[in-house]
Every structure is written in structure tokens, then in C-alpha cells.
Amino acid sequence: MMGGRFANMLQAPSIVMLFLWMVVPLSMTIYFSTIRFNLLYPERTGFIGASNYEFFLTDPAFLPAALNTLLLVGSVLVVTVTLGLALALLVNHRFPGRGIVRVMLISPFFIMPTVNALLWKNMFMNPVYGLFAVVSGAAGLEPVDWLADFPLGSIIVMISWQWTPFAFLIFMTSLQSQGQEQLEAAEIDGASGWQKAIYLTLPHLGRSIAVVIMIQTIFHLSVFAEIFVTTGGGPGFDSTNLAFLIFSQALLQFDAGVASAGGVIAIILANIVAIFLIRLVGKSLMVR
Amino acid sequence: MRARGRNLRLPLRTGAAWAAAFVMFFPILWMMLTSLKTELQAISVPPLVLFEPTLDNFVLVQERSDYLSYAVNSVVTAFGGTAVAILLAIPAAYAMAVHGGRFTKDILLWMLSTKMLPAVGVLMPVYLLAQMAGLLDTRTVLVIIFAMINLPIIVWMLFSYFREVPLAILEAARIDGASVFREIVYVLLPLTWGGIVSTALLSIILCWNEAFWSINLTASDAGTLTALVASYSSPEGLFWAKLSAVSTLSCAPIVVFGWFCQKQLVQGLTFGAVK
User: Fold this and answer.
1) CATH of the domain at B151
2) Which of B77, B94, B124, B208 to mutate to test binding with chain A, by most A CBs within 10 Å of its CB?
3) Does residue B107 sit in the same domain as residue B232?
4) B39 and B151 both lie in a single domain
């Protein structure tokens, strides 16, 4: 059918644009990663094979950065899914002021990451004037310098604060669509609250949990702004993730070759995670 | 026994919900309060809750860095990027949802996989390409990039809305001799308007809060609000009240926008997969 073929062509612009957006920079990155390319020394050029990769992989920061990346994604996922679920269950009944409670609970999701990070860094985690220090001082405890002593943990707190509302929002919507008849039937059969939660509610939420995990992983693999405006990756490499490590190679040390090698490695790692994710989640997204 | 437990449990749950909402919202509340203090009040120990509010910080912020021009950049790039992406995505999602073939699922997954490409991996080439094209620190480059990074999610979401439209309705239009263009504009779009709006809302919020490309590709001309706030990251004497003021100004538009649209947003966020 002619109409069908023409209609099919309508997806071409999107596909071509995305293909260009992906392939052009990607092939340039791969090319840069095999040449000598430092923005400070433009006269040094030439093919150098895998030495940029060797340099990046043997950088003492690489292993911590890779581990931090995974730790960050994993911790944020655990915290946000657990808290989001708890909050969604908590507001899943009628009570006075429910609308306002819901608006307050989702607000952090709209805060931009740079504001989020600076807010926590200064007004809450500052070791002298921050609210945490003031409260722990009032309780007679030593104040903690959160960003110096627990840099990655602090960043996990910031990101979790922002993304718990996202998980909450999706779980809440999903809970509202759960059939009441089933729950009532279970109750008549003598099921306890926990039994209902584990055998009926959790399976019902399966698909939304999959959505939350997939979208959040995509965003958290490349966390950047929160680190950029708070710790700058430090102290040492304690809060450096791969995205930030590559950024510091590229724009702070001007070594585009090594940064590109790092970029290729980050892409490979992200694709390994993506394959797992799509196996795990892709199916449940495609099912009607 | 059981009934009494119930009666007690409801107020408890309500109280807990209120408490949780207060805790989650507290940082935002604190930011707004601090923006109304003087710098000295902002760091006072114990923290002040009652004080005489002042608007000086907002004036200072505007004087120091011209908040309005950053705000205009944010609005233009967020709406521009979203508009471009939606215009590209509507025909694509139509083709996939209505005339989908064997490869539709693979194309969709491939599109999503471009989101897995870490931005930092292509920072160098994109920076150099933008430099060569003379597009560094322009709104144009941000509009293009915002459109590209949101296109996969937008196509996916529109696809899931378009798929809900009964094929018979579209076929009837075709039999009546409607062209593909008319079929989309007069039949498909009116039926899926809600979905398109929620998709656009989500995209606008994501663009507004995008930080990586805005920080790395723009300076004073095309800088967005995320970049403006990032410029307050290095401590400089007493600056919390000013920082709070600039943060409040930068987030207020999108937070209020989000509150008004939360219902549509929920549909959007779930890829239409959760009902």
C-alpha cells in the first residue's frame, strides 16, 4: 500500500537526526581517543594506538570512579524506591489536606540539580552554620563535616531527595489503579495487611518499579552537576564518578585524547548496564 | 478490637503523611525563608525563624548578574528544544504506532539506548563541532541539544499514546480520502491532545533543569538559570541569602508550573505504561 510506505517514511527524520547525534560525535570520540590530542599543545599530533586508553585505565582515579558510579546509582535506587514506596502507601487513603501533602512531596523533583546541591551543601551540611551542625551541636554532639567526611554519601542524600518524589509519584498513580475488589476479597479470606502488601500490591507495582529503575538509572549514570558544584570530585577521588573524571580530564587538564578514551570506556560501561536493564525492564515496557 | 485499632490507625497515618510531607518540603521552605533574611541573619546560630523579611537579596541578584536575561534563555531553550523535538516526534510516533512493522520495537529500544550514551562521552566532539560552527554560547546550540536528548523519551511517550487510538477511526479517515497530513492533524492529534501536552510538560521540566550541556557550552550570552546558579558555587564571604534568592528565583517558575500540571505530568512520566 502506497500510503503505508509513505507513512512509514515519516519516522525517518527522527531516526536520521538521532543517528547523526549519536554517530558523528561518537566516531569523533573514537578517533580522538587514538591520537595525541592536548588542547594546550596543538603541535603534538599523530596516531598513538591504545596509549590514551592505557593512561586512562591505569589512572589511580579510574577504579574509584567506576566503583563510585555504580555505588551512586545502586544506593540512590535503593533509597528512592524504598522511600517512594513507603510514601505512596502512606498517602494511599483519603485524609484532610491530601492534595497539599502530595504537592509538597513531589516538589523536590522540580528543583534544578545545581540548586539542590548548593542548598544542601551550604544551608544543611556546612560544618559550622549548617542546620545539621546546629542540631547536632544542640544535642551535645560533635558537628560533622558532611562533604569532607562522607562526600559520596552526601551526594547520594542530595540526589535521593530529588528523585524520591519521582518514585513516589509513579507508585502513587499505580496504587490508585489497583483493583479494590481483589483486596477486599483477600481481606474476607483473612489475609493480613502484610500479606496483602506482599502478594497483591507488590506484584501490581512490578511494572512501575521497572519504569522507575530504568529512567533513574539513565539519569544517575551520568550525574554531574551535583558533584561539580559541591565537592569537585574530592577529597581525593572519594566523590569522583566516571562522568566527572572525564570532565576533569577534558576541561581541566585539556587532554582531549585521554578524555575521549575515557568517554569510550564510559559508553561501553553504560551499554553493559543498558543491556541488563533492557533485559530486565524493556519487556515489561513493551507489553500492552 | 479490630475496629478500635482501625480508628486509631487512621489519624496516625494521616499525621505521619503530614510529617513526611513537611520533612521533604523543608529544604525548599528553608531556602525561601533564607532568601528573605539579611546575610547575617542567614548564618545566625541558632537559626532564626522569626525575623523582619527583606527583599534586598533579590535586588542584589538582579544587579549582579542580570537574572532576567538568564531566565529568558531558560524559557527560550526549554520551550524551543521541546517544540523541535515534538515536531520531529509526532510523525515518527505516528508511523510507528499506526503503520508499525517488524522493526518498530527494535527502533524504539535503539532510540532509548541513545539516552544511555553518557553525555560526557561526547562532550569533546560536540564542544569542538559547536566551536567550528560558531555556535558556542548561543541559544541555538542548546535548542538543538535539548531536542536531541529528549527526542527518544518523547517519541516513546507519544508512541504509547498514539497506540491507544483505535485503528478503525484512522482508517475511516483514510477511506474518506484524508491525506496522511490531514489524518494526523485533524484526527490523531485532537484525540491524543492530553498525552501530547503531558509529554511536552515533562520535556520542558527536563530542559529547564538540564545542567551538563548548559554549564559546559554556554557562558554569559546564552547561559541558562542552571548555569547562573552554578556560578554561585564558589563561596565568597557571606552569600547564603543571595544564593537562596537566586535559587528561589530560578526554581519558582518551574515548581509552580509543575504544581499546576501535576496530573498531566503523572501520565507523562509513566510512559503511559502505568495506568
Assistant:
1) 1.10.3720.10
2) B124
3) yes
4) no
The count of domains in chain B is 2
Region of residue A130 (left: phi > 0; alpha: psi -120 to 50; beta: else): beta
- The residues that bridge with A47 in the sheet, in sequence order, are A35
Q: In angstroms, rounded to a whole number, what is the distance separating the alpha carbons of residues B101 and B107?
A: 10
Contact of B87 with chain A, judged by CB distance below 8 Å, is answered with: no
Contact A263 B17 (CB under 8 A): no
Minimal C-alpha gap between B65 and chain A (Å): 16
Cα B38 to Cα A118, B23, B242, B245: the distances in Å are 18, 25, 9, 11
pLDDT tens-place values along chain B, 275 residues long: 444 555 667 788 889 999 999 999 999 999 999 888 888 888 877 777 788 888 888 888 888 888 888 999 999 999 999 999 999 999 999 988 888 777 888 888 788 778 777 787 788 889 889 999 998 889 999 999 999 999 998 998 888 888 888 888 888 888 888 888 888 888 888 888 888 888 898 899 889 988 889 988 888 888 899 888 888 877 777 788 888 999 999 898 888 888 888 777 766 665 555 44
Pick from A19, A122, A131 the residue to mutate for testing the B interface (most B CBs within 10 Å): A122
Q: Is residue B247 part of a domain?
A: yes
Select from A119, A134, A246 the Cβ nearest to the Cβ of B47. Answer: A134
The answer on B78 and B31 residing in a single domain is no
With an 8 Å Cβ cutoff, are A131 and B124 in contact?
no
ipTM rounded to 2 decimals:
0.84
In this structure, the answer to whether residues B22 and B106 fall within a common structural domain is: no
Asked if B180 lies within 8 A of A6 by C-beta distance, the reply is yes
CB-CB contact of A154 with A230 (8 Å): yes
Quote the CA–CA distance of B253 and B274 in Å, as a whole number.
28
Q: How many residues does chain A have?
A: 288
Chain B: give the shortest CA distance to residue A261, in Å. 9
B198 within a domain of the structure (yes/no): yes
Cell numbers placing B58: 533579590
Chain-chain contact of B274 with A173 (C-beta, under 8 angstroms): yes
B172 and B43 within one domain: no
Whether residue B14 is contained in a domain is answered as yes
Query: Does B61 reside within a domain?
Result: no
Q: Which of B20, B116, B126 sits opposite A271 (nearest CB)?
A: B116
By residue range, what is the domain housing residue B49?
Answer: 2-56
Q: Which of B28, B56, B84 is the last residue of a domain?
A: B56
**Which three cell numbers, joined as nine digits, stand for B231?**
556560578
CA neighbor of B258 nearest in space, from A275, A135, A265, A105: A105
- Same domain flag for B198 and B120: yes
Do B243 and B265 lie in one domain? The reply is yes
What residue ranges define each of the domains in chain A, with the CATH number in brackets? 33-286 (1.10.3720.10)
Residue in B37, B120, B189 to test binding to A, most A beta-carbons within 10 Å: B120
